[in-house]
Design goal:
It is a single chain. This protein has helices spanning 2-9, 21-37, 42-56, 67-82, 110-124, 139-152, 165-178, 196-209, 224-236, 254-263, 285-293, 298-322, 329-341, 346-349, 360-367, 372-380, 384-388, 395-405, 409-432, 434-439, and strands spanning 98-103, 129-133, 155-157, 183-187, 213-219, 241-245, 267-271, 280-282. It has 443 residues and is an alpha/beta fold. The chain has 3 domains: 2-82, SRP54, nucleotide-binding domain (Four Helix Bundle (Hemerythrin (Met), subunit A)), CATH 1.20.120.140; 98-284, P-loop containing nucleotide triphosphate hydrolases (Rossmann fold), CATH 3.40.50.300; 319-439, Signal recognition particle, SRP54 subunit, M-domain (434 Repressor (Amino-terminal Domain)), CATH 1.10.260. Strands 3-2-4-1-5-6-7-8 form an 8-stranded mixed sheet, sandwiched between helices. Helix 1 (2-9) packs antiparallel against helix 2 (21-37), helix 1 (2-9) packs antiparallel against helix 4 (67-82) and helix 13 packs antiparallel against helix 16. The radius of gyration is 33 Å and the shape is elongated. It binds guanosine-5'-diphosphate (GDP) and magnesium ion (MG). Residues 110-111, 135, 141 line the site of magnesium ion. This is Signal recognition particle protein.
Length: 443
């Protein structure tokens, strides 16, 4: 599948810090080929590749991920975006009966889907549903709907092949009104190919029934043809959405991408089997994206890792402190900032083992939250060299730092003393283990 392929493509790129034009070139080619193989229309593929390239350029690759994983996540998110990001529900907020009209080629699954939809509305939405077939060309089609209705205990408006489709639909609307149905589902006749007569009839039915949902039903297995058909129906009819049938047979999902991109209409449901009871589900772009990529966990893995990066920084600090070496005033300042975010030293003092052993002066200084900002100001006024090697800060430097930070030499002295004490404390706690992690708000 595509994920495996991309992972393979990226295999040699381990350890690269960023995605770049160079290192994603082969991967983009893989994605392009995969989409074309999945019957996604060429203009759609071109746009898509362009978007992914823009998203990927300069994207940082954190250490615990591979470039391939980061790239897969970007492709996934773009796929979701292309398919509409969220599930669009049916809009049934009309004066009852809300009419749902299904249009599409013969064999696309309109009649089957009518029954699936009726059952879904009845069970999940507690609607009273009436169905009607306007397929006057095939007696079997009308019987098929009548049978399905009986199966799922949904009423079917009786119609015959000797009537006009528009007349049948009008009668059904009137019957739905009289019978106080919430929803009327109108199943229409298709043709094997797009033709003018079929479109004219669908337009007439639309005008006569004023559907709140005019859904284009399309067979996912028909690949590129699905795109052309979708375009023709979308041009001729004010579609409100799409139902993609036989998605159970098409593991590639290419039609979902193209149909959405070409019509701009949301896919509201997918058909996932012949069975009426289990054959329909709301369409979720993120699930389809995962399916197209053939992957399960990569996306959540990447999200998890990106979240962990902050924690990793904290952990690095702990290691540094624990080793008792290299704790400098830069680190001290970072700690001050973190402590400020955590609500001040006082709030965590009592949780710290070994705190009682510190000299009273140091304890008091740390308990007091107020000077935190002044401490930070003092450190800010130091040169990087001074922060790294506090022992070089002699009298004249102390005067300069005090002046620069708007504090006094006494305060600078006190800070340096505190820093020294902290250094010692950290060393001590580092040997003991747990205390330091707790100080840093980690487990
Ligand atoms: P219509 O001509 O558009 O009314 O199409 P039908 O509803 O009669 O369906 C044509 C065929 O497709 C039937 O054999 C259905 O059982 C089958 N079918 C419809 N939807 C699905 C689906 O989601 N998955 C599968 N596997 N078959 C489906
Ligand atoms: Mg039919």
């Amino acid at each position: 599948n595509l994920t495996q392929k991309l992972t393979q493509t990226f295999k040699n790129l381990r350890g690269q810090g960023r995605l770049s034009e160079d290192n994603i070139r082969d991967a983009l080619r893989d994605v392009r080929l995969a989409l074309l193989e999945a019957d996604v229309a060429l203009p759609v593929v071109k746009d898509f590749i362009q978007n992914v390239r823009e998203q990927a350029m300069g994207e940082a690759v954190v250490k615990s991920l591979t470039p391939g994983q980061v790239f897969v996540k970007i492709v996934h998110d773009e796929l979701v975006q292309l398919m509409g990001a969220r599930n669009d529900r049916l809009d049934l907020s009309a004066r009852p009966p809300a009419v749902i009209l299904l249009a599409g080629l013969q064999g696309s699954g309109k009649t089957t889907t009518s029954a699936k939809l009726a059952l879904w509305l009845k069970d999940k939405e507690k609607k009273r549903v009436l169905m009607v077939s306007t397929d006057v060309y095939r007696p079997a089609a009308m019987e098929q709907l009548a049978h399905l209705g009986k199966d799922i205990a949904v009423d079917v408006f009786p119609s015959g092949t000797d009537q006009q489709p528009v007349r049948i639909a009008q009668d059904a609307v009137a019957a739905a009104q009289r019978g106080v149905y919430d929803v009327l589902i109108v199943d229409t006749a298709g043709r094997l190919h797009v033709d003018g007569e079929m479109m004219a009839e669908a337009q007439a039915l639309t005008a006569a029934t004023q559907p709140v949902e005019l859904l284009f039903v399309v067979d996912a297995m028909t690949g590129q043809d699905a795109v052309n058909t979708a375009k023709a129906f979308n041009d001729a009819l004010p579609l409100t959405g799409v139902i993609l049938t036989k998605a159970d047979g098409d593991a590639r999902g290419g039609a979902a991408l193209s149909v959405r991109a070409v019509t701009g209409k949301p896919i509201k449901f997918i058909g996932i089997g012949e069975k009426i009871r289990k054959g329909l589900e709301p369409f979720y772009p993120d699930r389809m994206a995962s399916r197209i990529l053939g992957m399960g966990d990569i996306v959540s893995l990447v999200e998890q890792v990106q979240q962990d990066v902050d924690e990793e920084q904290a952990r690095k600090m702990t290691d540094k402190l624990r080793s008792g070496k290299g704790f400098d005033l830069e680190d001290f300042r970072a700690q001050l900032r973190q402590l400020e975010r955590m609500g001040g030293m006082a709030s965590i003092m009592d949780k710290l083992p070994g705190m009682g052993e510190l000299p009273a002066e140091a304890q008091n200084a740390m308990q007091d939250g107020r000077p935190m900002r002044r401490l930070e100001a003092i450190i800010n006024s130091m040169t990087p060299g001074e922060r790294r090697h506090p022992d070089i800060i002699k009298a004249s430097r102390r005067r300069r730092i005090a002046a620069g930070s708007g504090t006094t030499v006494t305060e600078v002295n006190r800070l340096l003393k505190q820093f020294e004490q902290m250094q010692k404390m950290f060393k001590k706690m580092g040997k003991g283990g747990r205390g330091l992690s707790r100080l840093l708000g980690m487990n």
